[in-house]
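Quick start: load a record and inspect it. Here is Sulfur carrier protein FdhD:
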Amino acid sequence: MSTFALAPDPDDPELTRHVEGCDHRGQAVALSVVVERPLTLYLNGTEVVTLMTIGDHPELLALGFLLNQNMLAGDDAVTAVDYDGDLDVVVVRTRSESSYERKLQRKIRTSGCAQGTIFGDIMERFDDIRLDTAAEVRCSWLQSLFLQIGRQPSLYQKAGAIHGCILCERDRPLVYMEDVGRHNAVDKIAGYMHRYGLCGRDKIFYTTGRLTSEMVIKTVQMEIPILVSRSGFTAWGVDLARRAGLTLIGRARGQRFIVLSGGERLVYDLDFAKAAGDDGGELSAAHKIRPDRGASNDPG
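Running the structure step on this input writes:
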């Protein structure tokens, strides 16, 4: 039985389809490929964006997108999220005009264009967020999470060409979302957290994608203090993580990982000498970072 509150359903016939072709020897092959479809998002009566998505959990994706783009504020009471599968449209309704709609109207009236305002608003909120400095992440939790996530059936295992994101608490995976874009998977989790009132301050966020500036910004906006990936880092992602005090762990596989920010939250509760032997080789120096050796929030 799955330990996840919500997880991918690789057997959902709406998410993949069989495609026939031939291989390098000219022999016929058939494989499953991920379905991609448009989803147009409205905030009340305002069309916001059309997203390309696999189509599962459109209501959560819509909520999470608006939250992570700072188009919904904490005082914007959501009264309904309506999805029309025939039109591929989702409408998020609020009790009164949202702060984004008011701001959009003001920008259009003053300049005739609202482009370039959203990123500035996001970064302004980014700098105001204070992540929980008392949060911790144990190496034993990470090892357990990697094993549980790897064993969970997923669309990636069935068809590939997809990203996954998992919300975790200590050594327990809670919510697993997939989509063709990692930002969509993140936004679905943000929508889930908002809908069910989950706090991010004691959570760990795991992604299969690169640790980019976008991933760091969205994790901080969800007030999650720890971000983990099996993939690598971008320089700006590291800079922003250090700026926000986010623990940033990448290249995480098995017992191995690299931490480039927020290393003071790590608790080294594993026998790494034994783990290295079990893993078939010594851990590199980068995997032995301690908070007083290059893993602090100090960008220098």
